[in-house]
Amino acid sequence: MAVWAIGDIQGCYDSLQELLKKIKFNVAEDELWIAGDLLSRGDKSLEVLNYLYSIKDSIKVVLGNHDIALISAYAGIKRPHLTIIPILEAPNAQELIDWLRHQPFLHWDYRLGYAMAHAGISPQFDFGMAIRHASRIEKKLRGRNYKAWLKHMHKKSSNRFNARARSLDIEKYILSSFISMRFCKDDGELNFKQKGEPTEYKVMTKGLKPWFACPSRRSMAMKIIFGHWSTLGYYQDSNVLSLDTGCVWGGRLTAARIDLEEPILVQVGCQAKADIF
After folding, report:
1. E-strand spans in the chain?
2. pLDDT over 70 at 115, yes or no
3. Beta pairing class for 235-236 and 240-242
4. Three-state secondary-structure class, residue 257
5. Which of 64, 92, 148, 230 has a CA 20 to 30 Å removed from the CA of 253?
6. CA atoms within 13 A on the CB side of 217
7. Where in 70-148 does DSSP place strands (E)?
8. What is the distance, to the nearest Å, from the Cα of residue 116 to the centroid of all Cα atoms in its chain?
9. How many other CB atoms are there within 10 angstroms of residue 13's CB atom?
10. Residues near 19 by Cβ (< 8 Å), separated by ≥ 6?
11. Residue 147 pLDDT more than 60?
């Protein structure tokens, strides 16, 4: 059995199929980890979601910001992007949305030594905290009152974890850190607005660093697989493995085999054009 991890698909169905063919993915034997953002912006988001649902027993998915945006649009909280309207209008929309709502924000395998979260794990969390906090918001998203909960989650988040804050504000920080973070300050305070490459002048002059390079980051026994950051692209060190290589933006779709001593990288080019409007 091979275990492969894939970065943000974002509706690039044709590229996904090409990549799975290239890695010789065997749905009956292999396992596929997907680092969130399954859909949106790409031209075949419904096809991607239907396919992944059809092989759901062979995949491990964590939710990303675009996946939450789809669930929020279905709940009537957020205006849908044009590329996800076919999902909302599909006859099996409720089945697909309910399946997404029951996916985690954090997946891990102690045997492999890897954990996966869409944007990563907050530098203020150790791994035990990450597990507890992910479970906390997963229960909310799966619950009967998920629509009211999601409505609050779209409000502005604090940049710093505060265990004494109101419950909903704590959960807003937890959610934002798992699906939206990129940069932080030396003391671990997150910056949810800043995008771009870590080497950009405007980033460096603000004293910002990638979350995984935070000097005060808590120790983590697991190597973290994440996506979400197309301008960072593929990046690997002893602590993290970044797999969002911007397929939908004209880049590549990337898979890494993670059940070996050193990951094997496989990529395919983008076959879709992003619809940014």
Report:
1. 3-6, 31-34, 59-61, 107-109, 114-116, 183-184, 190-191, 209-210, 223-226, 235-236, 240-242, 252-257, 264-269
2. yes
3. antiparallel
4. strand
5. 92
6. 22
7. 107-109, 114-116
8. 8
9. 22
10. 6, 253, 255, 266, 267, 268
11. yes
Written as six digits, the tokens of 11 are: 């509706």
Burial environment of residue 32 by CB neighbours within 10 A (0 to 12, 13 to 18, 19 or more):
buried
Alpha-carbon distance 192 to 159, whole Å?
7
What three-state secondary structure class fits 61? strand
pLDDT greater than 90 at residue 271:
no
**Whole-structure pTM over 0.90, yes or no?**
yes
Q: What are phi and psi of 267, to 5 degrees?
A: -135, 155
Q: Tell me the mean pLDDT in the region 261-270.
A: 93
Name the token pair of 3.
Answer: 């275990």
Residue with tokens 């669930």: 71
For the chain, which domains are there? 3-155+221-269 (3.60.21.10)
Give CA–CA dist 36/230, Å, rounded. Answer: 13
Per-residue b or e along 257-274, where b marks 16 or more CB atoms closer than 10 Å to that residue's CB: bbbeeebeebbbebbbeb
Cβ neighbour number for residue 65 with a 10 Å cutoff: 18
For residue 276, the model assigns a pLDDT of: 44
* Backbone torsions φ then ψ of 204, nearest 5 degrees: -65, -35
Distances (CA, A) of 11 to 48, 51, 113, 154: 6, 11, 29, 23
Rg over alpha carbons for the chain, rounded to the nearest Å, is: 18
Burial bucket for residue 74 (CB in 10 Å: 0-12, 13-18, 19+): buried
Q: In angstroms, how far is the first alpha carbon of the chain from the final one?
A: 41
Task: Please name the amino acid found at residue 98.
Answer: D
Query: What token pair was written down for 89?
Result: 């209008």
